[in-house]
Amino acid sequence: MAQSCNRNTPVQMDVYDNNAFNGKDDFPRKILSQLLGSNGPVHAVTYSASPGTYILTGSADRSIRLYNPIPASPSSSTTTTTTSSTTFITKPSQAPSTTPPQGRLIQTYTSHGYEVLSLSVSSSNATFASSGGDRAVFLWDVSTATTIRRFSNQGHTTGRINSVIFAGVDDSLLISGGHDTTVRIWDVRSQSSSRPVQVLGEAKDGITSLAVSPGGAGAEVLAGSVDGRVRTYDVRMGRLVTDVFPGAVTSLCLARDGKTVLVGSLDSKIRLMDRSNGQCLRTYGGDGNANGDAAGGWTNKEIRVQSVLGGGERWVVAGDENGAENSNGEGRVWTWDLLTGKLVAKLGVPWGPGGGKVVVGRDGKEKERKNVVSCVAWKDGGFGNQFCVGGTSGVVTVYGEA
Amino acid sequence: MSYKRSRATFEADLTAQQSPYVFFGTPLPPRDPEVRDDGSYVPIWKQEVRDERGRKRLHGAFTGGFSAGYFNTVGSKEGWTPSTFVSSRTNRHKDTPKAVQQRPEDFMDEEDLADAEEAKKIQTNAAFAGLGSTANDATRASGLMGLFRPQGETMGVKLLKKMGWREGQGIGPKVRRKARLELQNDATAQGETFLFAPENVPMIAFVKKTDRKGLGYAGESGLTPIGRSGSKKGSHGDTDDEDEDDYGALGRPKLTMGGGRKKETSKVRGGIGIGILNDTGSDDEDPYEVGPKISYNRVIGGDKKKKKATIAANPTLQAKPKFITKKAASSILGKVGLGVRKCHDGRLPLDGFVFGKESDALTTEINSEGKYPPPQIPRGWVSSKTPKSESARGSPANYVSTADVAKASTLDPKARAALLGEKQLPGKSVFDFISPASRDRLAAVTGRSDLPQALGEVPAAYARSEAEKQQELLDRVPKLDKETAIAAISRGIGGGAPYAEDEEKRARYRGYLEVQAGFRPQLPPKPAKLTDEEWLREFHEFFNCARIFKPMTGFMASRFTTSSSTKPTAATTGDTKEVVSRPPPKPEDPAEEAARLGMFGTMTRSVTDFYPTRLLCKRFGVKPPAHVQPDNYDATSEKKKDDVWSQFQSYGYQGGGGPGTVERELLGLEFGSTGGGGGSTGGGGGSTAMADLERGGGTQKPAEVVLDTSRNEALEGKRPGDEVFKAIFGDSDDDE
């Protein structure tokens, strides 16, 4: 289905044409590994900059972990499984029959006092930035596992910082946005000034997601807000373009050419928007999606669920806030074809080792815990299609091609 | 020839001077051998300042300076020791193991410590110091009562004083009157008036009478403290008949009124003739009182002179009444003392009468409670006096007071009227007229259920027919403008009518509006479940509700449009079965509406200006947009602004080929502005155009420049030299 539409698409897919012509769906469906160790839900996953060898996860247990998703050897995976099953979320029940191998935990970064909500890796892979509940943006040195800068003074005064992203030439800027409805731009290079370079206070509600136009193509900052707007700050032109969406915007993902943006909002729809004129090119999810899957359509009404463009803008990959029913705590990942909008795959995300799905709720009754898949990251660069998802189970699942 | 005396001679001299009366032995040396006590001149530099304990007060600058710590305590065993300076840089204060805490007591001498101890003592407020008080004896007379009640100024007096009141003044606004110069008011300042505080009017206190003395007669109070009689004695002076009217330590004091000597009053008091033998049992009487005084003349002759002086001292108390003009009296009184008390009407008491001593209200109250009962009458005591025979007056046993008789009487006013032969008055009770509801209310308020039944009669003069009542009720219905009523009706059609939850009420509202608008001749009939009052109240409610829809007039109406009329579709498709009336929803943002309908595009997009800071632009590697160019931009850019093509140059694509190239570029830009959207505003587009020009050699006109931000040919093309960038973007990034 993809190959028929590829010819008249504005999105460049030259690299993947070979695969498409082969008639083989190379969407990564196989679970390569699971990344364990988090003691709480994982709020953010990101690949290191190209070639994307490593995965950083930001967790509710206030730490950031650096993994190599490729398991070292099949034998070592089983030994570490038992150690990580002591997390409070996963209750030990019967072990799944086939345990996926585990990724290797390389480093743990602990300085946050609250949950980590967003991660961004600089293009040089030497530093990364994180933000979360503690109203500060931390700039980390990857190798020494220490913070280089903490942008907190005169920063976001209230609430959490939902999103942080590198921007500018040579990643000289850090942009953060959070509950205090402001987008703050920090100068990474300036060592003395603790004040933000600029504060963008147009939003009327919390900032949920940020995006920066890639490379040197444009100096634009996109900020998605709960007030249902995506504000595009064009630094070069000095223009602010506001696009209105019917629901709170929770996810932004720019295409590599910067012409289109994938906007996820809380009206159960993911939209591919043409940035030049603000028109909607395609809608994914919800019941407006003509993919014949009316029974279990993708819905997203409450939780910030990330959706990304993957496979060189061939697919739209999104998490799921509901989880699969009666599936032993399985979450789901939805994938649509970018051009046709048809559902490509609906993958189950296992809870993880131990498979504990039952938790004791506040009312004292046991209930099934939903594995909300809230964050998705697609591996850019490198060989092969690969992506990873994280969610409430605290286990990051890495998918790759078979 | 003079020579200096030796020390020995001087000292011998000194002892001879100091103790000239010592003839045997050696005189004691002066107290301090260091000090010459002879009062001889000591030069200033030799003089020493010493404190009261003889310690040196002043020291040299190197021995401690002035007073050397707290009274020379520096360096002493218990004194303050100067600490050496410790640099906090090397030796952090927080690192020191528990620095010695200095207490205020460390700096106190024994005097201060004693003061501090004193301050810790708990004692009653001075106002309550009934015992051990050092106040004058007069206020102590109340004895233990002072423990329970503050003496001195009460809070009210304090408040009054804060408001400017002074003792002796009356309370109230100031009075304009002549100055009352008491003694010589004759000639001075006749016509002038001044503002004075009002006269003080003494409080009339009705003191509970607990004794059996005559009205106004104060008698004598009990034992008097010695101090008071002593002071009296001092005031009496050394007259010869001191023993006549002074009773010594145990004697009765004079009445405390005024300063005058009221000898006659004491005589009057003594004249009543109560002896120690006919004790009445009252403890107010002093059993030790020496009975009636009999004045004996102990001096033969010469008594007259003294008497005269006494009489002259207070002529108002003269035995024989004698006319004295008020002026003279007041002048005499003024001489005697201004404290002579007057009655509360401003007059002196009647001759022969004295002021009763106002006994303390609280004390008498407590005393009267039976705490100090009178002594028991001895058993078997029989009064020697027998009551008079019953025949003289009616038997006291038969005596019935009038009030008791009235109580015992069974007659009501009507019966009494009948007995007296009075005619019945032609009147009716109030209850004949009031309504039953009012009667019930009265009964509820008074708590009496035996009120007569209310008849609710209407006097003939006020009687009205039912139609008149209805008409009167309708007259009280508030009137509404016709325009307002029509507007309210039309608003109701749109679905936003009030009282959506109550169909009947809405109908009544509708009817009211229609009547007011003139569509209907008369109001709908009053519903049965409503009383007249409720009905009328409802009309007022309708009136207030409909008044909102008063149409705007003239200028205002032209400026506004009603919001609900713009969305008739919402009203028609709106939920008809909605029960609760809701306020009309806020006008939707059309962009949000469009987004909800999926009409993304121009409807949902709005473009405004955004002002990135210069540093932001620099970090993004772009030139600041034109409207961000600050006035404090560096001098090079300002100079460039003067040039025609400076704006294009500043985009960073100034060719290196000299002016000819620039001209070509300018030319090309003018043509290329169709694609780039103007050189001054379209940074990216302009640069693309320029890049195209460069590649094309500048001679060909670019037909249509396609803006492709993904592949910036300008960047991939020939880049200008780095110095150009440096000139434009100023300093490098490293120096920040």
Outline the structure in words:
- The complex is a heterodimer of chains A (402) and B (736).
- Chain A is mostly beta strands.
- Chain A has a single domain (32-69, 99-400), classed as YVTN repeat-like/Quinoprotein amine dehydrogenase (Methylamine Dehydrogenase, Chain H), CATH 2.130.10.
- Helix content of chain A is 5%, strand content 41%.
- Chain A contains 3 helices and 30 strands.
- In chain A, strands 1-30-29-28 form a 4-stranded antiparallel β-sheet, with no helix packed on it.
- The radius of gyration of chain A is 20 Å and the shape is globular.
- Chain A starts with a helix and ends with a strand.
- Chain B is an all-alpha fold and 736 residues long.
- Among the domains of chain B are: 7-66, no CATH class; 429-463, no CATH class; 464-554, no CATH class.
- Chain B contains 27 helices and 3 strands.
- Chain B has a two-stranded antiparallel sheet.
- In chain B, helix 15 packs antiparallel against helix 16 (503-517) and helix 24 crosses helix 25 (683-695).
- Chain B starts with 6 loop residues before the first helix and ends in a 7-residue tail after the last helix.
- The interface between A and B is large, with 42 and 43 residues.
Question: What's this model, at a glance?
Answer:
With 402 residues, chain A is mainly beta. Chain A has helices at 2-5, 17-21, 74-84, and strands at 30-35, 42-47, 55-59, 63-68, 104-110, 116-121, 127-132, 137-141, 146-151, 161-167, 173-178, 183-187, 198-200, 207-212, 220-225, 229-234, 239-244, 249-254, 260-265, 269-274, 280-284, 307-310, 315-318, 331-337, 343-349, 358-360, 366-368, 373-378, 386-391, 396-400. In chain A, 5% of the residues lie in helices and 41% in strands.
